[in-house]
Amino acid sequence: MALNNLWGKLGAFSRNVLVPSNVIYKSFDADPLVSDKMSRAISRWYGMYVDKPEWADDEVKPLGLPRAIAKEFAQVVSSEMTITADGGPRADFNLLRRNDRGHISIGLDLYLLEWHDHAHRAETARQAVSITANGQSTSVTLSYKPTASTSQKPGVNYTPGISGLTAEKMSLYGEAISRNSAITNTTSTVYIDDGASHYKISVGDSINIAINGTSYAFKIMGFNHDTLTTSTAYGSATATGKAGMTLQMADCLAGKAQMNSSNTNSGGWENCAMRKSNMATYLSQLTSAWQNAIKQVNKLSSAGSQSTTIKTTADKLFLLSEVEIFGSTSYSASGEGTQYAYYKAGNSKVKNVSGSANSWWERSPNANNTTNFCNVNSNGNANNNNASNSNGVAFGFRLFPGETE
User: Fold this and answer.
1) How many CB atoms lie within 10 A of CB 170?
2) Contact by Cβ (8 Å): 51, 149
3) Which of 25, 102, 190, 398 would staple 243 via disulfide (CB 3.0–4.6 Å)?
4) For residue range 76-125, what is the model confidence (pLDDT) as tens digits?
5) Which of 226, 234, 181 is nearest to 397 (CA)?
6) Where would I find the beta strands (DSSP E) of 40-135?
7) Element at 352 (helix H, strand E)
């Protein structure tokens, strides 16, 4: 990863300031601040500081004496040493915090270590940082990705909601959530730390997304609920293997639709016209930013025709199953997933079409006949309907980081 390479370079620099000039030039494409002779002297001093002097061997043991002497001298020297870091509130806070603990002599190492802690697997957001020690400066660009947690950091103000976020940011935050195994499908709130930006994101939070030029509200259904079709969808396998966030339309599209053109549920969700045709159309009507942000998850559905066989489909857009909405089955087969946190919390299942409450489709075939799919009635109750009837459509999707506008 890019950060690991950078961290290696910075580690060599921060331990020594300390490496031969040709290595500094090659690593940073910058002229060195010290001569090779001085670098070698500092390197020898550092070796003694960590109790690994260059003269030590199998017969000559340092026994901690070089380290003790070097440490005493370092404390005297560092009492007159100043280190500053510029690059934003995070840089100032992290360095000053360690200075307050009396670690000025190794402040640069600890500062960079703090960045490494916050920036693992980082390749996305970037922040330029200038580090100065005793009047000599070096500038580096640190790359990092946002982090997600179930608790907020002390003294940090978090902006609630997702309404002002871009598709790119939503994707990155979804990845951060997927990488934290402490966040589960029962978690109601997560805290995102993204450089100087901090967000409190909760189940039920809403964001507006344009479909074919019309703005529709989408709500977060849950965190780390849906299994990624590709385990490395985020670039590498995550701690959970799940999509960080799943969203669903708060209300239905303006136009109603059929599950199939005839009254059959044969082939189930996998082969119905709603999935084969309609979902592709809806996806194409999203902006390119959101199209790129949406990738596939595995969804479970019965094969239809009263079959108890559960099929797995890889879907970018999907309808929810009966159990994902109600937490139990009334008309569908067992095994079509688990209830989303949003509906488990007791939120309304009523959805509107153009401002009026309307029945809306689920992907679940009716397990008791060969003609119907399940739906949610206009009053929010579970029901089922002939596959050729036109009902509301409120699809869901999960987020994935990719190129966006």
Assistant:
1) 25
2) no
3) 398
4) 665 555 545 454 444 443 443 333 333 333 334 433 434 444 333 333 44
5) 226
6) 83-86, 125-133
7) strand 351-353
